[in-house]
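Replying to the earlier thread about multi-chain prediction with a worked example.

Input:
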Amino acid sequence: MVRKQETLHDVVIKFAGDSGDGMQLTGTQFTNNTALLGIDLSTFPDFPAEIRAPQGTLPGVSGFQLHFSSERVYTPGDACDVLVAMNAAALKTNLGALKKGGKIIVNTDGFDAKNLRLANYPEGENPLENGSLEGYDVLRMDVTKMTREALKEFTMGMKEKDRAKNMFVLGFLYWLYGRDMESTIGFLKDKFGKKPDIFDSNLKVLQAGYNYGETTEAFTTTYKVEKARMQPGNYRSVMGNQALAYGLIAAAQTSGLPLFLGTYPITPASDILHELSRHKNFGIRTFQAEDEIAAITSAIGAAYGGSLGVTTTSGPGMALKAEAMGLAVMLEIPLVIVDVQRGGPSTGLPTKTEQSDLLQAYYGRNGECPMPVISASTPADCFDAVYEAVRISVQHMTPVIFLSDGYIANGAEPWRFPQTADLPPIHVKFKTELGHGEEKLQPYLRDEKLVRPWAVPGTPGLEHRIGGLEKQNITGNISYDPDNHQLMVKIRQQKVDKIAEYVPEQKIDSGADKGRVLVLGWGSTYGAIKSAVGELQAAGHSVSHAHLRYLRPFPSNLGAILSNFDTVLIPEINNGQLIKIIRDVFLIDAKGYNKIMGVPITKTELVEEIRKHL
Amino acid sequence: MSDTITAPTLTAKDFSTDQEVRWCPGCGDYSILAQVQKVMPGLGIPRENIVIISGIGCSSRFPYYMNTYGMHSIHGRATAIASGLKASRPELSVWIVTGDGDGLSIGGNHTIHLLRRNFDVNVLLFNNQIYGLTKGQYSPTSEENKVTKSTPFGSIDHPFNPLALAMGADASFVARSMDRDPKHLQAMLIRANQHKGASFLEIYQNCNIFNDGAFEIFTEKGSKAQETIFLEQGKPLVFGAGADKGIRLDGFTPRIVDLADGSFSKDDLWIHDERDIYKAQILVRMFDDPHTEGHLPRPFGVFFENDRPCYEEMMLLQIEDAKARKAGDLDALLRGREVWTIS
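Result:
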């Protein structure tokens, strides 16, 4: 049957279903397939806090949004072109995000009386029948029935058969977007190669979904999205936590330090542990500690012994680690503390994103306790940014806080991955013997960067004691001397400030160096700012975008950049945190835009906000 | 002549530092420090491979006075810091110095997890049944009804039995000694060091300022023989001034029997077996208040020892195993399985 194929530039699909429906897997599979074609993309998974919230209910809906385009893509998209709704609850929770006239692919079996009731539709109301979806392009299919039909010769139970429903949808989408299915077939082989029954059934349903599109005459059009024009090179798809884990492994390799991860499972950081624990063949030690405190202190112990000590957590864990961070500041040993932020305070919104730990990272410790703070702006950026965090930590003998968030951690994008040979070196020097004229080690004698020596146990002749009590300058002996304390507080601050001399200057990401509005961002707002600013620039407005990786200390030229704009606008997914610091440090009347809803800022709302300042 | 260079023989003095020892005069910590410094040279461990990690409390000043590597860390976390150090540097000899507050209250969680994981480290828990550094509050090992600064009407907390706790956490070496018996303490330190696995050594330590005499009944000449039993492997549980009493197991119940009146002989007594986990469970429960009628004497020595794999060894094995199967290739890792090229 001949059908027309339409070429699209830009598509946003939202896969939504019950949390047991396998929507994350469907989304990820479609994402990989898209990436392999060289189409640019960005994803945003959105899942409930409960592993399996009651089936069919509104809180049980799990979603996965994929934005793909033949143009460059920086966000998962504000509104969807296509909504895949596996049940009534999925339709109800996501319909608002669908563009007018958008396509809805529904599993009609998910709209029976029970599902409608669970989704809180009034008695007797079915959105598929009451005309409320007029104006949308609704493709109805009884996925459950056709899945069972495809598997009628299989001996497995009905429940098991139904588990393959997502494959039917995936197969259909592959047909709809003119894809071949090799990437998913390969995936199924890897995953179920040893369970031929499961492999065969999934493959069968996947093909059934594809064939359903092919043979059903009602579907008249397939779609194609061309490759995006991207920087030449080799690409792969990567998720934020994965890129972060790779960055740590790479930094361990180039620095020659064995990697030790002390951590305690917490959403949304646990995937870093999962990833690193798989790569023991790189000599990585992963230690799932008994709590957040043991997680960081075990990493301190490892760093004291000469390892690259890392701990990973989220907001509540950061709070628990605060005292130990202070110890690391006093000991002046390298340590990387990764905070994958989530909605707070307290347990807050574990599966939702927020940028609300910046002030905690800056100030959340007892005493005068400065630590460098570095952040990642996109999933792939986690690699480079955490690599930098390691470099600063080991070269400046200081704990470093690394801020990511749930949006970056679970989002995916194409990554032009580096070659090992291209990675910048990380030089580490242990002190191995006493210097000329030294009678015993002076553990707090500093070099020109104000950095003290890293002398690890096992080194003959350098035996020494360190600890959390204030120490005498140079000797490291306990000291309660007032002048010494003031001196040491100032030195620890200067040491962190001095790092600004060893990091790149701040760049303008897009736009002119001077103008009306500078949108200053940090972390996961990158894509939304980039897209919004790009749109306004194209319309001829005087607006620029700068995005901070180095949050403490700030790059030395930041003040000069800020002074070149009439207005500095700082969008954040918090109640205004970077803005407080910027106002404090640079004494400027920066403006904030704050969204605290557990979800990313959209391009559309940001465009509107920036316009107010133009 | 062989080519091997023999390390210079060290003495106790080589393990002391130039830092002034700042414990109160008469503190039991002085004796413990002296015994540790005495046994260290004989352990055959290069000084640079010895690391002493402490938390917070009077006892935790210990590392400053030992000329080895050392860290005076934060309250309760010495065990967790030591876990990370030992996991990443298995060749080091790691000693944890902690107290009843540091190791059983604020750091209790880390203590039990260190023991269950069985890192090959030595935990020296100085038990003085009081908070000394904060000037005299009751601790998790203080006896009930104890009047302290924070319990003017007497403590209503039920105390920990530290060795029962260690057994509950599956410690592979459980022992008790005291500051006032230098020879025994030295012997226990040596045993703790010899044991491969987490060694838990509780040391009764007198705080002469805030809890003076807490262990007097066990440590002083007049009562020591009556109130204590010194455990020896393969030997009957005998005590008393003239070795005239013993402990006999009546079913699961230990009972005091008289060896002098002819009704029982040493052959009837409980023979100590450090390797018997069931007996050890009973032994650690010999924890009666020595002021009650009919109480059992308090045992000292090695209660229990067994061999099981150490965490750091198994961790290393997994790494070696993974490397042997497939050496880490960073380029291959970064590349992943699905790559596309844009030209």
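The radius of gyration of chain A is 27 Å.

Feel free to reuse this layout for your own posts.
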